[in-house]
Amino acid sequence: MSTAQITATLGSIFDDENELSELPARSSRWAAWSLFYGWLVLAFLILPGCATPVGVKQVDPQTVHRELTGNVLSSGELSEQTRVVLNRRSLTTLFKQDPGEAIAQLHALYVAGGNADDLSALVETCFLHAESSANREFYLASAIYAYAFLFPENQEEEPSPYDPRFRLACDIYNRSITSAFKTDTGSTVALRGGSFYLPFGCIEIKFDSSSLFWNNRVLVYFQPVAELQVRGLTNRYRWSGIGAPLSARAASFSRQAGASELIADDVQVPITALLRIPEPRKQITGKKLHGILEIYDVSVPKSVDIGSRKVPLEVESTASLAAMLAESPVWQMELVGFFRSILNMKGSSQLRALRPHQRGLIPVVMVHGTASSPGRWAEMVNELQNDPIIQQHFQFWFFGYDTGNPIAYSASLLRESLTQAVKEFDPRGEDPALHRMVVMGHSQGGLLTKMTVVDSGDKLWNLISKKPMDELDLRESTRTLLRKSLFVKPLPFVRSVIFIATPHRGSFIAGWRPSQWITRFIKLPTNILLGLADLLQQHSLAFISTGRIPTSVGDMTPGNAFLKILAELPIAPGVSAHSIIAVKEGMPVDHGHDGVVAYQSAHLADVESEHVVRSAHSCQGHPHTIAEVRRILLEQLQGKRGRLSERSR
């Protein structure tokens, strides 16, 4: 009964004057009101039962969106699309009571003539059951169903990329591959071939173990990076696609001269594991399946061929970088490396990289500062190597050195390492990219950087002796050391340099008494000590009057003679130089500082651009610093030159 019908009935009762007039006046009023209230109570009892069985309720859009888009990965519950299939197949109640049996019946229905909707439901129900039961058979089955849903034999049957089930199937496939091959500890993945049981049969998986060999190393200890939380890096880059993203440790089993020496000893390689299932929809109708497990080195986005399709691989470069740095000894070398020589690097080069040298890519060499390490470039590397243009044209190398050593000595090691790398990688001079090298230094590293693009003549030698070197009675080893350190020529393959918070005229902290006292504990390499002992036998050496052993702290003290000469040396013609200077917030630029280096010390007049970042001294990871480095790299790539008319502040 509707509201209108009830109202009409009540009205007819009280509008019938003939019936009321037959009752006594008092009785008629009492009866009328009793009848009215009785019908009113009856109306309130009837009305709720008369509501329509189908209707709507207005709620906020987020609630509706969650209901429509929620799935097993985001909420731990089945998606709306999968629930529809279970309801349609009368399997909803059975799935709650016995998920395995419900999945078996749904599989049988698909084999008997089901469709892609059934496949999609099998993907999600298998994964949910695997999560609750920890049964790896269902993880593997979920991956196989997902592959069949995504890559049918008939390309016309492919799901639309706008279908939410498409991305869900990709994500479940990736997660299922990881979980299906996990070790018992759950923290690593064991990639292998063999026979594996499935809820509806078994699958024989082939795996080529030779794919584990990488640049004269073997890939071991596979971590599922999708399960790692990243800290210490601002942005986490993930390139969506197909495959399980992993991070593998590259373990050395042999050491050969050449490219292998460039790779850091503790490097981890981002890879993606892909399980191929030929003719997947046809195979899952049988009991015995076969597949191929493949791994791909994917430091940058990469696509693979699946049938006639180009399919992007899932890439997690940031997580792999963080996983490597989390266990790297690089952090321990920072302070220790300031006081003594602890690098113990194999080979004569102190250059390291995360990847093998790639012909055609311009090297960007990063030189860290005092009491620091290559790990401090992590933020910048994470941003630049995930830039689509930068990653296609540049590669990143890192120079490690003991930061307590004299600057001239450390700079000689840098120049020697770069020269050796060019000879090894391009002995015939056929790779133009290798001869467009960019060297970038932070703090003391900027001073080493400058010594790759200046001609010192005999100016630095004159600080040591008033006599020509040939007139001194020196051991050949000492003569070689002095010549490499003090007679500097521009490296012809360095085309750009970037100075970041560099104390060209010294650091006021280096001049503090505590800093000078600390230098007493610096232990210099044996070759330097032998060279100094050799020099002390000469009687015309200018440095004897100072009574101090040269160190980087002494070299960076304002007013130091070595630093004055280096600051005055012009940058070689044809080299583009750029300054990024840190000044703390709120300070006037021209009279400000970053807590370690004053602006006036970091400023150079003969650079092509100068950019001031409002930051403390350690500004390598500052967004504005990274943005300026990116601008400089792209400018070099485009061949644009020309002095900026105004400083960027």
What's the gist of this structure?
The chain is of the alpha/beta class.
Structural features, described:
It is a single chain. With 649 residues, the chain is α/β, with parallel strands linked by helices. The chain has four domains: 3-24 and 34-47, no CATH class; 68-179, no CATH class; 194-320, no CATH class; 328-638, Alpha/Beta hydrolase fold, catalytic domain (Rossmann fold, 3-Layer(aba) Sandwich). Helices cover 38% and strands 15% of the residues. The strands form three sheets. Strands 1-2-7-6-5-4-3 form a seven-stranded mixed beta sheet, sandwiched between helices. The radius of gyration is 37 Å and the shape is elongated.
The third-level CATH topology of the largest domain is Rossmann fold
Low-pLDDT segments, ≥5 res: 16-23, 256-260, 334-349, 511-537, 539-547, 641-647
CATH class of the largest domain: Alpha Beta
Mean pLDDT, as a whole number?
82
With strands numbered from the N-terminus, the spatial order across the biggest sheet is: 1-2-7-6-5-4-3
Number of domains: 4
Cα Rg: 37 Å
Number of separate strands: 16
- How much of the polypeptide forms β-strand, as a percent range? 15-25%
Number of alpha- plus pi-helical segments: 24
The shape is elongated
Instruction: Name the structural class.
Output: alpha/beta
CATH superfamily of the largest domain: Alpha/Beta hydrolase fold, catalytic domain
Helical residue percent? 25-40%
Largest β sheet strand count, sense and barrel closure = 7 strands, mixed
Our measurement of the CA-to-CA distance between the termini, rounded to an integer number of angstroms, reads 77 Å
CATH architecture annotation of the largest domain: 3-Layer(aba) Sandwich
In quaternary terms, these chains amount to single chain
